[in-house]
Amino acid sequence: MINSSKLIAIDGPDGSGKTELVVHLADKISKSGMSVDIFSGYFLPVSFHDTLMESKGNLVRMDKSMPEDVEQTIYTLEWLAKLKTELSTKLNLNNFVLCDRYLLSRFALASLQGSQTSKNILQSAIDNKNIYKPTLNLLLMANPDISYQRILKRSKARGINVEIKEQPKQLEVIYNSFNEVQKCVPWTINRIDAKQDELAVFENALEYIEI
After folding, report:
1. Per the structure, how many domains does the chain have?
2. Residue 39: which of 114, 106, 99 has the closest Cα?
3. Which end of the chain lies in a sparser environment, N or C, as judged by fewer CB atoms within 10 Å?
4. pTM for this entry
5. 129, part of any domain
6. Is residue 211 in some structural domain?
């Protein structure tokens, strides 16, 4: 169980249900009378109340593509430093902070450039202390086929194309990377079976959180 100021990191491949879980948790926390902030994908905060005004399918995302001329390690370390700065203003309060994609997700995406790049980023982040240890880190894992089908359905509903990193071969690489990098971080990773529907995943997540 966790209490006081709480940083909950939600990690997992695309199509694993991270954003849906964040929305359910934020709704539960808010209705319990506690403060909650959401950080989604990138380092800029998303107000929960602003987010509620959007449908779950249109949840505001703060993802930002890496410039082609920037090396992955440098980019990720800058992202981590900015995230730490933003989080520091929230974690001094008695509230919840939900992060949709944290350290594991960054490492997994880096695996598309090669396993050594991913390991270098992980080691650099730990050595430079540019990270906050989450109070709780949930890792949602289904399998590449299930994730891809969810991505296809989501993309069709939004009228957008599936990104390269969301293609089956890339998803398989990312899934394998999650299995590797979770062994390296200096805190406990709590895996949740994301093959279940989103409400079942939400119920599983509540087993780790005292609200």
Report:
1. 1
2. 99
3. N
4. 0.81
5. yes
6. no
Question: pLDDT value at position 76?
Answer: 67
CATH number for the domain including 21? 3.40.50.300
Residue 200's pLDDT is 95
What is the C-alpha to C-alpha distance for residues 26 and 18, in angstroms, rounded to an integer?
A: 12
Cβ neighbours of residue 203 closer than 8 Å, sequence gap 6 or more: none
**Cα separation of the two ends of the chain:** 9
Cβ atoms of 111 and 177 within 8 Å: the answer is yes
Per-residue pLDDT of 48-59, as tens digits, reads: 444 443 433 333
Structural domain contains residue 100: yes
120-122-123-124 Cα dihedral, nearest 10 degrees:
80
Domain that holds residue 92: 6-206
Q: Tell me: the pLDDT tens digits for 141-157?
A: 999 999 999 999 988 88
**Measuring CA to CA, which residue among 199, 162, 174, 197 is closest to residue 12?**
174
Task: Give, for 146, the enclosing helix (H) or strand (E).
Answer: helix 144-158
Mean pLDDT for the chain?
77
Beta bridge partners of 99: 9, 39
pLDDT digits (tens, 9 = 90+) for 64-77: 454 444 455 666 66
